[in-house]
Structures are given as C-alpha cells and as structure tokens.
Amino acid sequence: MTDAAELRRRTQELLAAHPPADTGRADFLRARFDAGLAWVHFPEGLGGLGAPRSLQAVVDAELQTAGAPDNDPRRIGIGLGMAAPTILQYGTEEQKRRFLRPLWTGEEVWCQLFSEPGAGSDLAALGTRAVREDSGDWVVDGQKVWTSSAHLARWAILIARTDPEVPKHRGITYFVCDMTDPGVEVRPLRQITGEAEFNEVFLTGVRIPDAHRLGEVGDGWRVAQTTLNNERVAIGGMRLPREGGMIGPVSKTWRERPGLRTHDLHQRLLKLWVEAEVARLAGERLRQQLVAGQPGPEGAGMKLGFARLNQEISGLEVELRGEEGLLYDDWTMRRPELVDFTGRDAGYRYLRSKGNSIEGGTSEVLLNIVAERVLGLPAEPRTDKDVAWKDLAR
Amino acid sequence: MSDLLYSEEEEALRAAVRDLLTDHCDAAGVIARIESDAPHDLSLWKSLADDMGLAGLLVPEDRGGQGATHREAAVVLEELGRAVAPVPYLTSAVVATEALLACAEPGDLLAGLASGRRIGALAVGLHTAPGAAFPTVRLEDGALYGELTGIADAAVAGVLLVPADDGGLYAVEADAVTVTAQPSLDLTRPLARIVLDGAPGRRLGDTEPAVRRALRAGAGLLASEQLGLAEWSLTETVRYLKDRKQFNRPVGGFQALKHRLARLWLDVVNLRAAARGAADALSTGEDAEVTVTVAQAYAAPVAVRAAEEALQLHGGIGMTWEHPVHLCLKRAKADSIAYGTAGAHREVLAELVDLRAP
How far apart are CA B285 and CA B70, in angstroms? Predict the structure, then answer.
C-alpha cells in the first residue's frame, strides 16, 4: 500500500536525483512520470503507483515547495481530462505506453474531434465516415467543429461512423487520429468575441492504422461515454472564495465608481450577488459530498446555474458601465492558447458567456437530463432508436 | 468553511420527525383543523416537544434543554415545513427561546419552553425583519398598556414576551391580556392581536439584543422551513405528473413541464445549500449575519415559486380546498414576509458587503 509518507519519500528521491534547478523542464517531467508521481492513481509503469487519487495532492505540494516545474495542466486539459482516462480504460498496452507519457508531459498536445456541424446536441448522429481498407487500416472523411487546440495538437481523439446500416449509437468507432496527416486541415473558427478559441477540422482521406483504434469496432459510443463523463468530472469540484466568480469584477466596479450607480441596477446587482453566493455554497456543498464519498445528483445541474448567472452578471456589468459599455477592448482575431473568462473587459465576458449555455451540453439538453435522470420523468420520444443511421432525417 | 451536509444523527432525527408527522399530521387532518376553533395541533406539539424533547434543542443542558444546535433545529423545521404542521415550533422553540437566551433573568421560563410544557411567543409582529423597528407597549406604575398586532401563534402561547417603552422585555401571562385571533392568510400559523390593559409583567432583560438575536435565528431557520415547503411542492408535483395522463401520455413527459420542474429542482438544490449554510453559521456564530441574510434573500422567492408551480402544474385539482397545495402556498407566501422580505434582507446585505445604494 502506497501511503502519504511513502509518496513523500519517493518525491524527495525524485527531487534529489533530478534537482529542478539543474534539470531541464521536459527532463524533469519525464523523470517524474517514470517515478510514478505524475498521476499516482494510474498503474505503475504508466506514470502512477496505483495509489488513491486523493494522495496526488501530497506529491503536488512537495513538488511545489521545491519549486519544480509542472506540466501546465490548463494547456493540455483535453489530453489529461479526456484522452488519458479513455486510453487507460480502452487502450492496448502498446497504446498506453506510446501515448500516455508525452501526453502527460505536454510534449504532445491532444484535441477532441467529436462535434460536427450536423451533430451537436445529437452527437451520436455524427456523419464523419471511416471506411476500412483491405489492409485493415481506415480512411476517414468528414468535418468536425468546436475543436480547441486543434492547431497545436499532435493527436486527436476521434469518433467516426464505421457502419451506416445500423442505428446511430451502434455504428460508431473510436480512434486516435494523427493531426499531422496531410489530409487534416485546421481552420480557425472566429467567434462573436472576435477571437478564435476553436477550430473547424476538415478530414479528407485521412489514414488511420487499425492499431490506433480504441475499443472494438462499433463500440465507439460506449468508449466516448468515458471521455464525456470525465469531462464533467473535470468541470466540477472547484472551490471558490466569496465573490470568486464573475460577480467579483462587477462588485469591484460598483464599489469603486459610485457615479455609475442607479437604483434599478442596485436591486439587480444585489439579487445576482445573492444568487452567486448561493451557487457558490451549492458548489461547496457538492464538493463536501464528494469528499465524504456521498456523490449526489446535484452535480448534474451546476453548469446550468453557472451559465445563466455568468450571462446575467456580465450583461448587468456592461449596462453598469454606461458610456464605456458601448466600447469593446479588442476585436483582433487571435487564437488564444488559454481561455480566461474573467481576464478581459465586461463586453468580452458578456459575449463569451453566451457560449456557457451551449458548450459541454446545451442548457436545454441538460434540463432534459435532470428531468429524466434525477426526477425520473418520462424520456423524450425516441423516433430514431431502431432506424439505420443512413435513413435518419437530415 | 461551514459544514453544509447532514450528519448521520441529523438524518436519524429527520427520519424520526418524518415518521411522527406521517402518522399524526396528514394533510386532510390539517385541512379539517385549520377552520376549527383550535387550528393548532397541541397533541402533535406534545409528541414533538414532550415525548421527543425537540423544543429544547437550542437550550443548553444545564438550563433544562437538549444542548443541541441550530443545525438540528433546522432539520426539524425542514420536516415541519414539508408537512405544513400547525405547531408553534419556530415561534416558541426558536424565536421566543432565543429571546430568553439573550435575557439576563429568564427565570424558569427558559426551562419551561425547553420542555415544551409552556409555549411562548415573542410579541413582535411576524413581519418584522432583524434590526427593523417594532412597536412597544407603555409601562406605567409597573403595569403594561397597549396593543400589539400580527403576533404569530399567540393563540396557543401561555406566556408572551412583550417589549415595553422602557427598553425592557417583559414576561406576561396570556390570561392577563386579551388575545384575539386575526383572520390570517396562513391558517396554520395564525396571527393574533394582543391588548394589554394594566397587565402585570416580569422584566426579563433588555429588549434590543433579545429581539435582534431572536429574529435573526428565526430568519435563518425559516430558510429550512422554506426548503421543506419547496421540497414538498417539487416532490409532490413530480409524483403527480408521472401519474396524471392527458393526450394518452403522462403529463410529466411534456418537455415544457419537464424543464419547469428541472429548473425548480436546481433552485431547491441551491436553497438547501443556503439553508444549511445559515443553520451552520448560526450554530458556530461564524459569518452568521451575511449567511443568514443571504439565505433569507434567496429562500422566499424559491419557496413561493415552488408552491405556485405546484398549484399550476396540478391544474384544476390544485385550485381546490381539498388538495393540500394551498396549505403550502399560503405558508410559503406568509413566510416570504415573515422576519423580513427578501427585499428587506437585500437592503441589509448592501450594507454588510459594501454594495451601497446610489
């Protein structure tokens, strides 16, 4: 059993053998992975020690104290949060050894090729085709959208249609796609904020060896559930101080600039302040439930609340700023590596938060999920259940 | 950070109270009772207070109580809210008891209230927010004169805690005053007018700190009652809509209704966090003012909307006197005024967190 003391000892050994001050960043990260201290809950030989996930904090704290570099997790969130758990669960030994180490060190960035112009909320209806050749390898044609980091990525997790003759959930297969293949074209997708956080990805005759398939042929929808469930885990669980979210900047403006205040805005600000504080408490309660090992259904709704609050608060802030609310900080088309929801002006926050009720599941779909899975209300009629994918309306 | 969960003991307490209410406080019984001469259920009160010892939760053991905290009292109130139980728990076991706890000379009254054998009512209008002004009676030659209105549960109180114009809070026996029921929106927590015409009183202590403490605890724990109301409204409506069929399908399968119920569920999840936050903050004293104010600024609109949605989504049956949804609606609406409206609490909050008016 690997306990906290053992992890501390191993961390100190790593630091002694590879002093951060004299070791290159990439070398240190590789050594950390090889010592099993990357993600301690992963198996030995794959960056972990099979220890409880909660003990990762022990390692992180020791390394932080020693001034060791980290793997900049925000930059490689899709790899860490979505690709890695899926590869771990469904990958072959060879796939795990090939992909996980450079994924974790950040030497290879990952992106996710799931959504399509014709498959948003109804992701399982996706139409990107993967056709198997006599050699056993695959050729992929289609279009993906809303792909962050595609222009930086070495690899992608991809779901594609391998059998159009069966109902939609059954004819999908999950692949690892090489983003340097000449058939992959990445185009920035400019958003209403002016920047291009995401990309469109066009796949034309992209070749994928069968060795880069994850899971069985036709089982891709089930494999994708692992990816998507881990996305939800990654989104929840943050601990915020009071005024820690979008309510912070508008409260600051209110305090610092009495000249902007009106009675109407005051009432609306106070209502939103209360709602933001209550949402923070609800998030904290959810966190306490998880820590106590009593996960409840409450997590299903957190994103719904935050999306609406972010939109209302940022909308109020634009209005509060009056004449300045008519201005916008910068419309330059950029491709940011990281998204900072609170880093820019109120106008940016207002526009960006419009995406909060669409990305990661629209609010309307999430309301269905809450109604059906939490409240047990009847499911939506499923007219596509027994229809071959090729015969679906589109 | 406060503990927002329920402990195992708190869940056991909830189960015990719910069992009692299931057996002795069904909606039909409450509906029959509210128009009678005795709208309060004193036999249920005896079970809660005397048999289960729940009236003394907030009173230390060495003063005759159970030595528990606001966290446990909040769980009791959640369950009483779910049942819209006509018992003076919030008014006597919380508000009057907290007032006495702040008094220098409560005498044996505190133990009396803690045992549940005596029922007390703070003679301050139910609508009064913590920190707001309230009327007092005149003290003249050691006797009290005046009239006070809007006093909740005064009809069953044996003793009234009356603020007088000398800044003192006085214990006045109910049989020394005239108590007249006021026709009330919420028939399960009826209001009364009290007329004092030379009533003798015993000075308990200073009014201001006692009333402030009492109303703050009342406001904070009212959020748990409101949570119980909202939860009942949601649960009952979901149950009904799974069962009720129109157009050859369960009504709960229509997306317009599913989304309304899902939104309500989200609000109830949030209200639970706010109410637990308030109960925990009252028990520790840490950050209590802001946390209670936030809970009260949030709770009332949610509880009222939950009851209103329950009525609308039940359709015609929800409009009948026979169906219990009106008990919940009337209690929720009355609660939205009790111990200060959401707006009054937002005004207080503006000062507390420095978001001042123009």
Answer: 10
In chain B, what residues touch A377 (CB-CB under 8 Å)? 238, 241-242, 250, 252-253, 257-258, 261
pLDDT of residue A1: 60
pLDDT value of position A238 = 60
Q: A141 and A126 in contact (C-beta within 8 Å)?
A: no
State the pLDDT confidence band at B258, using cuts at 50, 70 and 90.
Answer: very high
Please name the residues in contact with A204: beta carbons below 8 A apart, sequence gap of 6 or more: A141, A183, A185
Q: What is the pLDDT of residue A234?
A: 46
**DSSP 8-state assignment for residue B1:** -
> With contact defined as beta carbons under 8 Å apart, do B232 and B328 qualify?
yes
| A309 and A290 share one domain | yes
Mutate to test the interface with A, among B11, B280, B294, B348 (most CBs of A within 10 A): B294
Do A353 and A244 belong to one domain? yes
Ranges under pLDDT 70 in chain A: 1, 230-238
Identify whether the C-beta of residue B204 lies closer than 8 Å to the C-beta of residue B104. yes
Q: Which candidate, B241, B110, B342, B218, places its Cα nearest to that of A274?
A: B342
- Residue type at position A321: R
Q: Does A42 touch chain B (CB under 8 A)?
A: no
A211 and A187 belong to one structural domain: yes
Q: Specify whether A231 is catalytic.
A: yes
Inter-chain residue contact A376 with B242, CB threshold 8 Å:
yes
Smallest CA–CA distance from A301 into chain B, residue: B266
| A64 and A111 housed in the same domain | no
Q: Residue B235: how many CA atoms within 13 Å on its side-chain side?
A: 10
Domain B8-89+108-117 has CATH 1.25.60.10: no
Q: Tell me the residue range of the domain where A194 lies.
A: 73-224+381-394
Task: Assess B1–A contact: CB distance below 8 Å, yes or no.
Answer: yes
pTM beyond 0.90: yes
Closest to A317 measured CA to CA, from A357, A263, A355, A268? A268
The domain defined by B209-352 carries CATH number 1.20.140.10: yes
For residue A277, list chain B residues with Cβ-Cβ distance below 8 A.
294
For domain B121-206, the CATH architecture is: Beta Barrel (2.40)
DSSP A65-79: HTT-----TTTTHHI
Can you give the residue ranges of every domain in chain B? 8-89+108-117, 121-206, 209-352
Question: Would residue A374 count as lying in a domain?
Answer: no
CB contact under 8 A, A370 and B255: no
Q: Would the pLDDT of B308 be above 90?
A: yes
Residue A281 with chain B: CB contacts under 8 Å? 4, 270, 273-274, 276-277
Task: Let me know if the fold of B8-89+108-117 is the same as that of B121-206.
Answer: no
User: How far apart are alpha carbons A51 and A40 in whole angstroms?
Assistant: 5
Look at chain A and report how many structural domains it folds into.
3
